[in-house]
């Protein structure tokens, strides 16, 4: 029953975030892949790819949060002296490796639709299957998603859990009155920080998925434009992940229907 609750909680929170903030993610992808933004007259294009994104978000978010909570519980029970940082790194890594298998096809479809208003789900699937080295492309895409998501999730969840615990300890009255808001604020700060720090990997991932080139070719192409090009779209990504973290972790707390456990001080927090 607990795992089912985690599945539902993760799915609901993920859908809420993507439905509200999708246009910002779309603009970020276009800056990274094509160096352009849609004009105000092309606002409808900001929602290109949102349907497959929402469909993919449900199982991916559900799997991630369920495996995160499940692995965190199992690891902490079997290793009671494990540090918090090691616990979060292990839990988020296990969760992301699982969730990214589900996320991969939807991520490819989403980003290709974001940069091309003519692209359809059917045509994208056909093109990917027909391309030379399709299996290699899918494997590289999966790996680059993992390379981006694992450090992002480790940073995000570590900051979120830490801020939440500190808030529960030092602002107990505020936490008791506004537990959802505390979770939201902690999540927003965590998402923005993790998003900014992992932007270079996100730029490589976007270029690779859109154009299908190898890692080396993609990195060389970005380097030609200067090293600051690895931070293209960082403001959009930071804004998106601040508000995304604010909404997601607030919704996570709201939909979880459970009280936070009393805060315990751990000398191995970092």
Q: Quick check: average pLDDT?
A: 85
Biggest sheet descriptor: none
Strand segment tally = 0
Low-pLDDT stretches: 261-270
**N- and C-termini, Cα separation:** 32 Å
Shape descriptor: globular
Rg calc: 19 Å
**For this structure, what is the CATH class?**
Mainly Alpha
Number of helices: 10
Brief descriptors of the model:
single chain, 270 residues, mainly alpha, disordered C terminus, Mitochondrial carrier fold
Question: How would you briefly describe this protein structure?
Answer:
This protein is 79% helix and 0% strand.
Layout of helices and strands:
Elements: H1 2-34, H2 50-78, H3 84-115, H4 121-130, H5 134-170, H6 172-177, H7 179-197, H8 199-211, H9 215-224, H10 234-256
Keywords: Membrane, Repeat, Transmembrane, Transmembrane helix, Transport
InterPro entries: MCP_dom_sf, MCP_transmembrane
Subcellular location: Membrane
Mind explaining what this structure looks like?
The chain crosses the membrane at residues 6-25, 46-65, 179-197, 238-255. This is Mitochondrial carrier protein, putative. It is found in: Membrane. With 270 residues, this protein is mainly alpha-helical. It has a single domain (2-256), classed as Alpha/alpha barrel (Mitochondrial carrier fold). It is built from 10 helices and no strands. Helix 2 packs antiparallel against helix 3, helix 5 (134-170) packs across helix 7 and helix 5 packs antiparallel against helix 8. The longest helix is centred in the middle third of the chain and has 37 residues, at 134-170. It starts with a helix and ends in a 14-residue tail after the last helix. The model is unreliable at 261-270 (pLDDT under 50).
């Amino acid at each position: 029953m607990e795992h089912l609750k985690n599945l539902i909680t993760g799915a609901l929170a993920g859908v809420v975030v993507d439905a509200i903030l999708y246009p910002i993610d779309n603009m970020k992808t276009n800056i990274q892949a094509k160096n352009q933004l849609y004009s105000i007259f092309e606002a409808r294009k900001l929602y290109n790819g949102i349907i497959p994104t929402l469909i993919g978000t449900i199982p991916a978010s559900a799997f991630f949060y369920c495996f995160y909570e499940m692995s965190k519980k199992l690891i902490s029970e079997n290793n009671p002296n494990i540090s918090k940082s090691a616990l979060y790194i292990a839990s988020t890594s296990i969760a992301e490796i699982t969730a990214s298998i589900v996320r991969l096809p939807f991520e490819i479809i989403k980003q290709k639709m974001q940069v091309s208003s003519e692209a359809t789900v059917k045509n994208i699937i056909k093109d990917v299957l027909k391309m030379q080295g399709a299996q290699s492309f899918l494997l590289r895409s999966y790996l680059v998603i993992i390379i981006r998501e694992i450090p992002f999730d480790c940073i995000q969840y570590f900051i979120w859990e830490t801020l939440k615990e500190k808030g529960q300890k030092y602002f107990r009255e505020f936490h008791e009155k506004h537990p959802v808001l505390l979770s939201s604020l902690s999540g927003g700060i965590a998402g923005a920080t993790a998003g900014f720090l992992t932007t270079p990997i996100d730029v490589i991932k976007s270029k690779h998925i859109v154009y299908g080139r190898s890692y080396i070719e993609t990195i060389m192409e970005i380097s030609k434009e200067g090293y600051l090009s690895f931070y293209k779209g960082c403001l959009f990504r930071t804004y998106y992940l601040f508000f995304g973290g604010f909404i997601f972790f607030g919704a996570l707390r709201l939909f979880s229907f459970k009280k936070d456990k009393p805060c315990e001080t751990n000398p191995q927090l970092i």
